């Protein structure tokens, strides 16, 4: 996508020794380090000793001699590198991250992911496979995949950066519930999921969104973001033209509004494909076109919601259901609605007529697997803010 990117000569590597239940160090030293050596790549390797060690190191270190930073671990470690690099780049260039309308400065250092965690969704969605050697080879030959980043804000403050799912309602509740079930191990996500499907909890509120600029893609078309994706590579020019036109023609952007009772509000900056759901939450979402897909699932029966969820695994169209809508967006804001006592009683009675449904007024946000303990949220997509050592998923249907 970005032609002429050079091979890295020096890398800063972080290994989470506890990643993937302890397999990250073994993977790096037995399968990867000698490949870097063979390719003549110099490395500085740091085994992390605590959560946020990698993020904090990147914020302080002299990074001038490196061509990239690499994590050996899962999505949690990738998130540390993402936050460290984006924050560091903004502070170096004097940009205030808390300003929602700030034009963030793109990061010049590339990020490599050697998948060695229990969840490696970012690697899967950008390489097409979770295989440490494949990822190492992408790093060695200097493949470059730009990537959009979503920034979430609450009450005038930056909350988090993310590249895949930001979910309220179902996915927020599943994460909150799974934290209570930590003691049962990785199966906690499945157990929490089953519990939350049957609790059939929906949350009232208003979603406002800014649609993507006119483009040649839509969340309901049949295209896929694949290696050399034209939608992504042509997006810079398109975004510039659209911004200029808008400045000339309109005073302010026009926000669209949906008020309702939502089982799930999901924003995904990429398809969020993973081994369990090969097409992901939004199969046609793009990695680097400056947009995210907003999926709204309105209140419906448990069976109807199960149908929607099930379609993520069987390749049927998960959006072709009466209570589901999807939009390609640049920004979104959500305002929860407080409910009165009558509504609380109605909720208690809804679950098969018995008072076992949950009655909490608001859900929380699940931001790439981390809890954001707030209901009100604004999200903005930042076009190609980071670059990965990857080349996107290759289109095997053409060969
Ligand atoms: N040395 C350390 N001790 C404790 N936590 C760490 C350490 N290094 C990194 N972490 C944290 O561990 C979390 C999980 O790491 P990672 O994503 O690599 O592994 P994982 O096996 O996929 O984990 P999980 O499935 O629990 O997210 C990260 O959020 C990271 O901040």
From TrEMBL:
Pfam hit, one: DAGK_cat
GO CC term, one of those recorded: membrane
Protein name, per record: DAGKc domain-containing protein
Record GO biological process: ceramide metabolic process
InterPro entries noted in UniProt: ATP-NAD_kinase_N, CERK_C, Diacylglycerol_kinase_cat_dom, Lipid_Phosphate_FormReg, NAD/diacylglycerol_kinase_sf
DAGKc domain ranges (all copies): 6-156
MF annotations from Gene Ontology: ceramide kinase activity
């Amino acid at each position: 996508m970005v032609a002429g990117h050079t091979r890295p000569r020096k890398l800063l590597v972080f290994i989470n020794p506890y990643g993937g239940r302890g397999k990250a160090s073994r993977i790096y030293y037995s399968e990867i380090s000698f490949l870097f050596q063979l390719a003549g790549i110099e490395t500085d390797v740091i085994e992390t000793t605590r959560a946020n060690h990698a993020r904090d190191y990147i914020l302080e270190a002299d990074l001038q001699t490196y061509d990239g930073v690499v994590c050996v671990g899962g999505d949690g470690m990738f998130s540390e590198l993402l936050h460290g690099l984006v924050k560091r780049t903004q502070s170096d260039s004097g940009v205030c991250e808390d300003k929602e309308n700030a034009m963030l400065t793109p990061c010049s250092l590339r990020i490599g992911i050697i998948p060695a965690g229990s969840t490696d969704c970012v690697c899967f969605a950008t390489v097409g496979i979770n295989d440490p050697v494949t990822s190492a080879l992408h790093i060695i030959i200097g493949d470059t995949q730009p990537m959009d980043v979503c920034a979430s804000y609450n009450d005038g403050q930056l909350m988090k950066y993310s590249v895949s799912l930001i979910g309220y309602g179902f996915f927020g509740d599943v994460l909150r519930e799974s934290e209570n079930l930590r003691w049962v191990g990785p199966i906690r996500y499945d157990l929490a999921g089953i519990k939350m499907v049957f609790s059939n909890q929906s949350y009232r509120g208003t979603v406002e969104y800014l649609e993507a600029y006119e483009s040649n893609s839509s969340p309901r078309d049949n295209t896929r973001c694949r290696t050399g994706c034209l939608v992504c590579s042509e997006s810079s020019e398109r975004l510039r033209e659209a911004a200029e036109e808008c400045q000339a023609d309109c005073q302010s952007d026009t926000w669209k509004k949906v008020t309702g009772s939502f089982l799930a509000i999901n924003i995904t900056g990429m398809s969020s494909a993973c081994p369990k759901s090969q097409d992901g939450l939004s199969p046609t979402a793009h990695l680097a076109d400056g947009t995210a897909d907003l999926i709204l699932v309105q209140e419906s029966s448990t069976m109807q919601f199960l149908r929607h969820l099930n379609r993520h695994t069987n390749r049927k169209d998960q959006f072709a259901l009466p209570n589901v809508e999807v939009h390609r967006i640049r920004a979104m804001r959500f305002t929860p609605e407080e409910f009165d006592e009558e509504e609380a009683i109605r909720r208690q009675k809804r679950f098969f007529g018995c008072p076992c449904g949950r009655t909490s007024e608001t859900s929380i946000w699940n931001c790439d697997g981390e809890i954001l303990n707030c209901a009100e949220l604004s999200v903005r997509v930042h076009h190609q803010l980071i670059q990965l050592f990857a080349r996107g998923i290759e289109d095997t249907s053409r060969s």
